[in-house]
Q: What sequence folds into this?
């Protein structure tokens, strides 16, 4: 006869895995999006592209947020301090992270972007989280974090345009490193809000602030004639980035962030070079080198080590059925 307690424990264990699955899905969507952006960059101005993607998704977010809050009889209001924080995070994400990445890559290369713009973000996040006493240093962090970073270096180190420092990339590298700090502040700031407010409301405010900050660029850098010249493929890249990479990606990202916290969440960022390499192979016909295979293995092993203590904690908290398994 089936034990209800064991069924409950199994359901609880599966539910605890969903945030991890969520982040894997997010970085699959974002990895594919890098190839989509490369295709779209042949036709779009980066600031116009980012501005339009935010403008496209804002109406969907507010319609969903309205229905979500009305059904649960929740308020749209939040204290000015928190409203200022979520709007600031929206501007930080849209201009300080998305636009800065594309601008920085004009003065650096994609390999440096993967390492400095994304690879350093978990390191910055853990340092800030330790200083703020939001996490404690454990052996899994001490081993897993350097291993994941080594995996990123392996993925981007092979061939022309690999990771390197030099006067030719210094300007872009400084901006990429600054982006990692911005990304860490974004994770910590959003983590403080997702426990207090409904996710649809936070996303609506965040994306609206991002859209408003980018709208002046859309209005001044484009016109109807230029938009008419965009091919169906170009519009397809915009729709993928807006609806899947941004709308779905940020929703899943922040829902999982609420369960895992800023450091555990940022560590999944190391999957991006791996998923981007697979996306480039599928969509652009780019080869995958032995460096990338080895780097991918390092990253996957490091993800297990970093998340292992969380999974052990989750299992220890599950109540045991009396009398053992039958």
A:
């Amino acid at each position: 006869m089936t034990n209800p307690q064991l069924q409950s424990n199994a359901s609880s264990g599966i539910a605890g895995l969903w945030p991890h699955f969520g982040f894997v899905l997010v970085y699959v969507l974002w990895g594919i999006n890098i190839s989509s952006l490369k295709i779209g960059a042949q036709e779009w101005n980066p600031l116009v592209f980012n501005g339009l993607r935010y403008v496209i998704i804002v109406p969907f977010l507010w319609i969903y947020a309205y229905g979500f809050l009305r059904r649960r009889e929740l308020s749209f209001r939040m204290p000015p301090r928190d409203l200022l924080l979520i709007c600031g995070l929206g501007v930080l994400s849209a201009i300080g992270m998305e636009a800065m990445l594309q601008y920085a890559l004009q003065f650096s290369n994609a390999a440096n972007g993967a390492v400095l713009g994304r690879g350093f973000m978990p390191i910055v996040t853990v340092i800030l989280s330790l200083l703020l006493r939001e996490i404690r240093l454990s052996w899994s962090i001490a081993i897993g974090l350097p291993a994941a970073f080594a995996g990123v270096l392996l993925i981007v180190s092979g061939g022309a345009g690999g990771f390197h420092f030099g006067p030719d990339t210094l300007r872009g590298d400084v901006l990429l490193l600054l982006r990692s700090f911005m990304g860490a502040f974004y994770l910590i700031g959003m983590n403080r809000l997702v426990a207090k407010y409904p996710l649809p409301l936070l996303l609506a405010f965040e994306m609206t602030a991002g859209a408003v900050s980018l709208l002046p660029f859309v209005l001044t850098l484009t016109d109807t004639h230029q938009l008419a010249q965009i091919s169906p493929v170009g519009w397809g890249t915009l729709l993928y980035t807006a609806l899947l990479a941004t709308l779905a990606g940020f929703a899943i990202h922040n829902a999982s962030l609420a369960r895992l916290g800023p450091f555990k969440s940022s560590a999944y960022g190391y999957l991006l070079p791996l998923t981007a390499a697979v996306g480039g192979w599928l969509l652009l016909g780019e080869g995958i080198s032995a460096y990338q295979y080895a780097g991918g293995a390092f990253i996957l092993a490091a993800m297990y080590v970093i998340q292992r203590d969380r999974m052990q904690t989750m299992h220890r908290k599950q109540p045991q059925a009396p009398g053992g398994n039958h």
